[in-house]
Design brief:
This protein is α+β, with helices and mostly antiparallel strands and 412 residues long. It contains 15 helices and 18 strands. It has helices at 16-22, 26-30, 87-107, 126-132, 136-140, 148-153, 155-165, 208-230, 241-252, 258-264, 267-275, 283-288, 294-298, 301-304, 307-321; strands spanning 2-5, 10-14, 48-53, 59-71, 74-83, 111-116, 121-124, 169-176, 182-194, 197-206, 234-239, 277-281, 326-334, 340-349, 359-366, 377-382, 385-394, 405-411. The longest helix has 23 residues, at 208-230.
Length: 412
């Protein structure tokens, strides 16, 4: 048997039996024109009795059957030519082949249903019946054009498109079958011709578990995003992957002491900082860094990083160099309005990220108030004068009537 394109008249495929029968190599056969195999050198008929010509010029009598299909984007004919002298042998072979194919279809985990173009089901395997929750006689009594779930899920429209265009249609559908069975299918609808009439082959794969897993992942992501956005703590998602790639190059170049390398080449600290990508920030970050929107902050990150921050950034890079999964340290940055802040930085690698992905979750805490000088200085206004009051305390015996003494210095 072979397949040829009906419009451009070229062979698209051929099986080994035909090559053996006609004496050609696969390459030679596919280079032929379809008329070359006909004894009268005309394009062979697609059905009935015919005389075909072998490579050596000998003529054989054959019975031809063909089916229309779409193959590799071509409108094609699938031709089966049986030599009449071996007709009985072919019948026996056909019976064995049909039995073998039937066994494969019956045991397939994919639901397989064949329909007439008018919508009647003509066959269905066990997997399909199990998926829809019905018996074979119930299935064969149905017409897909009147099935509610086919109309609601888009299956009917896809089936009509496949039959009209003679092209396979693929889609994923979810609903309830006529037999009250919940389903979630990945579906392929393939048009074909049988016995001169158009048909539709439906291949149904149950993707319920896969779909549920994907839904669970989406729900988890939504919960994470809600927590991330609504947290009162400043949180950033950063990507150190380019830094890790750079460090691999340094190691390949023989660098073993990163601290010494960065001390000698301080410009590389700034270069490392440029490799860090900030992927996202939460709403609390906008308040801390005095930004109106995320875009404003993400597009002006260079403004919030002070020169003092580069010094502490080296400690972060050492943590990455050493393969640590967490880091904690202090730094000095500034808001978009120029106000300096003392910050406590903590980050940890995001679980399930690959070694090279380098994604980290960063929490940033403004500790500026903690770092104000604790020198007992108090500013007051007395009348129209500003007074700088300094307070000092002395330890005293707790049993004594007076437990503390203090003095003050007033500066005008």
């Amino acid at each position: 048997m072979w397949i040829y394109a009906k419009q451009v008249l070229i062979f698209l495929d051929v099986n080994k039996a035909a090559l053996k029968q006609y004496g050609y190599s696969r390459r030679e056969f596919l280079a032929l024109h379809p008329s070359d195999v006909s004894a009268d050198k005309k394009v062979p008929r697609n059905s009935g009795l015919a005389k075909y010509c072998r490579k050596d010029g000998s003529i054989i009598n054959v019975e031809v059957k063909s089916h229309r299909l779409t193959y590799e984007g071509h409108k094609a004919a699938w031709v089966i030519a049986r030599q009449l002298v071996e007709h009985e042998h072919f019948q026996e072979t056909d019976r064995g082949t049909l039995s073998f194919v039937s066994s494969i279809i019956s045991s397939s985990p994919i639901g397989i249903i064949a329909f007439k173009a008018t919508g009647e089901a003509v066959s269905a395997n066990e997997a399909a019946l199990k998926m829809i929750g019905g018996r074979l006689e119930q299935m064969l009594a149905q017409n897909f054009r009147s099935i509610k779930s086919w109309k609601e899920t888009g299956l009917l429209q896809a089936a009509e498109t496949a039959l009209a265009s003679q092209r396979e249609q693929r889609l994923e559908v979810r609903g309830i079958s006529t037999f009250s069975k919940h389903f979630w299918f990945s579906v392929r609808l393939i048009p074909f011709e049988y016995d001169g009439a158009p048909h539709l082959l439906g291949l149904f794969s149950d993707v319920t578990e896969q779909g549920k897993a994907e839904e669970a992942v989406r729900e988890s992501e939504n919960r994470y995003h809600k927590i991330f956005e609504e947290s009162p703590i400043c949180i950033w998602v950063e990507d150190f992957s380019e830094v890790k790639k750079y460090f691999k190059k340094l190691r390949s170049a023989g660098i073993t002491d990163l601290k010494r390398y960065l001390d000698r080449r301080p410009e590389k600290v700034e270069y490392c900082a440029s490799l860090v990508k900030v992927l996202d920030v939460n709403q609390a970050s906008l308040s801390v860094f005095e930004a109106e929107t995320k875009d404003e902050l993400l597009n002006n990150l260079a403004k919030v990083i002070s020169l003092e921050a580069l010094s502490s950034f080296k400690d972060e890079m050492m943590a990455v160099w050493e393969g640590r999964q967490t880091f904690e340290g202090e730094t000095v940055d500034q808001t978009l309005k120029g106000r300096k802040m003392n910050l406590l930085i903590k980050w940890s690698e995001i679980p399930n990220s690959t070694e090279d992905s380098g994604k980290v979750l960063v929490t940033i805490l403004d500790i500026t108030e903690r770092r104000l000088p604790q020198d007992g200085r108090i500013g007051l206004s007395v009348g129209k004068r500003d007074v700088d009051l300094r307070v000092s305390t002395l330890p005293a015996n707790r049993s004594a009537p007076s437990c503390a003494s203090w003095n003050s210095k007033v500066e005008v």
